[in-house]
Each structure stands twice: as structure tokens, then as C-alpha cells.
Hints:
Number of domains: 2
CATH architecture of the largest domain: Alpha-Beta Complex
Helix content: 40-55%
CATH topology of the largest domain: H-NOX domain
Shape: globular
Oligomer: single chain
Order of helices and strands: HHHEEHHEEEHHHEEHHEE
Amino acid sequence: xxxxxxxxxxxxxxxxxxxxxxxxxxxxxxxxxxxxxxxxxxxxxxxxxxxxxxxxxxxxxxxxxxxxxxxxxxxxxxxxxxxxxxxxxxxxxxxxxxxxxxxxxxxxxxxxxxxxxxxxxxxxxxxxxxxxxxxxxxxxxxxxxxxxxxxxxxxxxxxxxxxxxxxxxxxxxxxxxxxxxxxxxxxxxxxxxxxxxxxxxxxxxxxxxxxxxxxxxxxxxxxxxxxxxxxxxxxxxxxxxxxxxxxxxxxxxxxxxxxxxxxxxxxxxxxxxxxxxxxxxxxxxxxxxxxxxxxxxxxxxxxxxxxxxxxxxxxxxxxxxxxxxxxxxxxxxxxxxxxxxxxxx
Length: 345
């Protein structure tokens, strides 16, 4: 099936395929750091990743979702509910009162999907909360607002949960995130959960939001990886991880897009769908793709980032047909050719 025969592959299905690829890459990067560099480096990466995401997205997101006029504990919890829901994350919300609102991420956990949950040290998981949840009060200019974590899936609990709480006093840095495993989130009736307006958020827009959610982790994460490890080591880990993720995601991506066959033309059709679904502007000329706009790193110094970014797509091609290679020139043109000196028995 070609992309022209299935118009939806460039719409919601294309966006969801991109989301799946980038989501898997995020998990792979964290696991690669845990195994290759240790929990401390991995924790640092996760903390910086979520703090940068928070600083860039939280306040604008409150306004976009129409939550900026709510009490701060409620606004913070509802932001996490709606933004994570749009990202494809299972999430629940419960408001006790204006100064206390719960957020709960039931299993299966999105951030550490599948068996990855078994390999995430506690300090890596909690770095996420230090990076984002504990900083909401600071961003809202409300030093009395903190987050209390009551349960975590990495500890064997039935989900990650906790509540935003506005105290009577200003919090110091250590008080912004508190752990209270003896407390539990009340029962949440699914019928009481708030919903996005379906007219404002049709399926295609929600699919693109899901894509953006996953892509944003890589947009922030790859430069951070280079900053943290240095260009050479960051490129090495990013490349190996990207290749592995591309190969592992091959069946799911091609199945979602309804593509079959292992020839070069089929792969270029899939690659074109993935680039367009990522928000890139591309032009197909015969068996080559010219990219005129790169949404992920539009204003970045693109040298090393391009090299790492190609890795999962090269991995897809390796699983598709190991006798083909993805070529890319300085004019941002892509083509698929037979590898030199390859003989097929």
C-alpha cells in the first residue's frame, strides 16, 4: 500500500507512528544512560530534561488550556491531567479543594513503557518529579505550592500518584517535593473526569498533540545529551540507541502505516510519510526527498544533531532491508540505494 492509497497515513496514523518512534527513543536514551553511565548521570539527564521542558511549556500551556485563572493547586494538577492525556498518557485527576488536587498516572506507565519499568532506579524516576512537579509553585510565583508524592510504579505501587498542595507557609527547596507513602489517592470515578472539548480537539489535532509531546522530549533531550556527555560520547550513545530503537519499532511503524514490501521505493514512501507527519516540509523528486524545513531543530546548529537524528531511521531501514542504505547530503536530500559491494545470495 502506498501513501497515496491511504490518505490517513499522513494524518492521525502518521502522527501516531512518529509519536511511537520518538517515545521509544526517549526510553532507550534513559536506559542507555543507566546501563552505560550509571544512575547518577541518568538522573541528571532526566532532571534537566524535565526542568527545561517545564520552563518552556508550563506557563504557556496553562494559558492554552484555559487554566491560568484557576487556584494554583487545581491549575497545576489539571495541567498535568490534560497535557499528559493529549500526549497519550493514562492519567486521572481528583480535586479535594482549592488548595489540594491529586494527579494519578495508573499503569501501564507511559514514561517507562513495557518491561523498561523494571530497569528504572528510584532516583531516576524521582528526578522527573524534582525537575517538573516540584517547580510549579516557583513558576506560578507561589512559594507555598508543593507536590506530595504518595505512590510510584517503580516501587511496585499501582501507579504514580500525588497531590499539589498549597501550604500556609513558604516552602524551602527541600520542601517543594515531599514523599508520603502512607497516604493514598481517593477512588476516582472515571465518569467524573473532565474531558477536552471534542470540537476544539478533533482526532487529528489530538494525534498531532501526541506527536508533539513525544517529539519535544527528543528536541530537548538530544542537545542535552551532547551537553552532558560531550559531543563524541553523546553522539556515540545517541546513534547506537537510535539504531536499536528504529530496528525494534520497525514492525509497529510499518503495520500502523499499512505498508508492505522490503524494496527501496516502499521505504522512501514510509520515510516521506514520517517526515511530513513530523511537520517537516519535503518535496519528492523521483526517488529522492528534499527537506525544505526541519521542524524538530529548526534553529539549531544541525551538524551533530543531524547525525544522531538519522539513527532511528537508519535502524528502520536495517530492519526493512539490510542491503540498502540511507544517504543524506549537505543539501538535506535523502535517498535509498543499494550498499556497495553487497551480494545477495
